[in-house]
Amino acid sequence: MQRKRFLMLVLVFLTFGFWLVALVTPGWRISSVMKPYPSVQFMKRLWKKLSTEQGFINDTFYEQFIKGRVEKIQITIFSESIFYLKNCTYERKDGKRTNKCLSNPRSADTTNNTTDYLLISWSEMQIHYAAFIAVLVLCLVSFFFLMKNSGSDRKVLFGGMALFVSVVIELILVIRWIILNINTNKYYHSTENAKLWEERKNIVRLRFPYSILLAAQGLIFSALAVPFTCVLYKKLRQKATNRLQDEENETLIRTD
Question: Is CATH 1.20.140.150 the right assignment for the domain spanning 2-238?
């Protein structure tokens, strides 16, 4: 029982750690916009290639068609955390690289003014804030009850319930952000926006949202911990029942 209890506490601790890291990292949704500055003839060839074969640029295409044929490349990366937005601009010209990054906290202005891009409202973001804080608090509550149960089945029950609720919230958040990334990718690849990128000579793509991977890993750990709490609660409950039966038997023996 002690080994299962220890493993359960480790899983809850890992859940808290992964979600805390996911909360502060700007990797829930990452978009990059590349603007090359080549010759007019090369740009015509480039967009013809994009429109007929690939739709968006990839690394191989970059190496084959852009390297050595542009005067300057500017790449802007928009990264999203739950609490802030990060904007980094990288430039390469004549073999030299420069970069500049700015971070701004999320607010009603920064969200509502870019609703078409974010595909998420400020009111929903506030719900996400509360949900993330709730997950961390529930993990701490669960860890406290499971660590200090002292053989109490009630404490294990409360800890398990807190953990189960956190699993449900984590699952909803992960699925919601996966859907946001899928919708953003569709938004970028829509016919209307593809024409807009072509007119502006921008090459846009969605990068891997690593914060979702961290949160999903925490979700797996918490989901694995829930069965352990059920097993521990069942054993403690059975132990308490056996204790009551022993006391009743002792009482009957004394009365006889």
Answer: yes
Mean pLDDT over each residue of the chain, to the nearest integer: 76
**Do the Cβ atoms of 36 and 206 come closer than 8 Å?**
no
Cα angle 181, 215, 218; round to 5? 155
pLDDT of 116 reads 47
pTM: 0.74
> Which of 46-60, 80-94, 118-132, 211-225 holds the top average pLDDT?
211-225
**Parallel, antiparallel, or unpaired: how do β-strands 96-105 and 203-207 relate?**
unpaired
Tokens, residue 50: 């994009």
| Per-residue pLDDT, 164 | 92
Going from N- to C-terminal start, the domains of the chain cover 2-238
Sequence-ordered list of residues with C-beta below 8 angstroms from that of 42, at least 6 positions apart, any chain = 65, 69, 70
